[in-house]
Amino acid sequence: MPQSARLCATRCAAGILSPPDPSGAERFLLGPALVSAVTPTPESPAAVDEDVTSTGMHAQTTGGQEPRSRLPWVESGGGPLVVVPVAALAEWQGASADFDPDDLDSWGDYGRACLIDGYAGCLAAGDGQVLVLGDEPASTTYLPEQRLFVRWICADSEDDVIRLIPKALETADWEDAGIWATGGPAQLFDSAYAGNELEHEQPLAVDTAGGTYLVRAACVEPEEGTTLVLVQLIAQTSGI
After folding, report:
1. pLDDT in tens, 167-200
2. Alpha-carbon distance 185 to 175, whole Å?
3. Considering the entire predicted model, what is its pTM?
4. In Å, how far are 30, 66, 77, 161, 163 from 156, measured between CA atoms?
5. Within 13 Å, how many C-alpha atoms sit on residue 213's CB side?
6. I want to staple 154 with a disulfide (CB 3.0 to 4.6 A). Which of 126, 149, 167, 227 is the partner?
């Protein structure tokens, strides 16, 4: 069984993961240890512009307050994340209403995402394709200039993640994770949710041009105590 499916099944059996209400009223729940392991720690705004600009991102602010986080991060309740083209959002149904924790076949599109073996993979959604970020339910951001998803597996702080991204890219031992065809911009969110019912979520916009991309992935330890999973899109269609 793929790692994602094992994690989902284990958490369901332990009562850590509970099926979502299709209305969005209920959320998948993480145990405290997992929350502390994957939730970014708010950082001081010092040197934000210098560090974050180098990755093509900017600090996130709200109403003049200090930024809670220097990059926008998306998390799941314990399962995979999905990158769904905007044109295909209505095709992604998330977890089915009759979700049975003991029966993977009843999990709907969410169950299909859990079956992806490896760091990333692609699934059909109507006439389009969905990119699945699997293996671990890690906090994830997207750097548009590098077409790079960065997954925070282990790090002391967001500062360390940002500082070590260039080194991680330089030392990554990439493996192919398939071909993703997309019609254009997409949304990154928890695979348990339907694409047309995201009003209770905070999806992350993934600004990609329409075309075909090679998906490559790597798990990198750029420094002792820091582990990142990188998933990068390499354009295969001329003009992208």
Report:
1. 999 999 999 999 999 999 999 999 999 988 888 7
2. 24
3. 0.73
4. 20, 20, 21, 8, 12
5. 25
6. 227
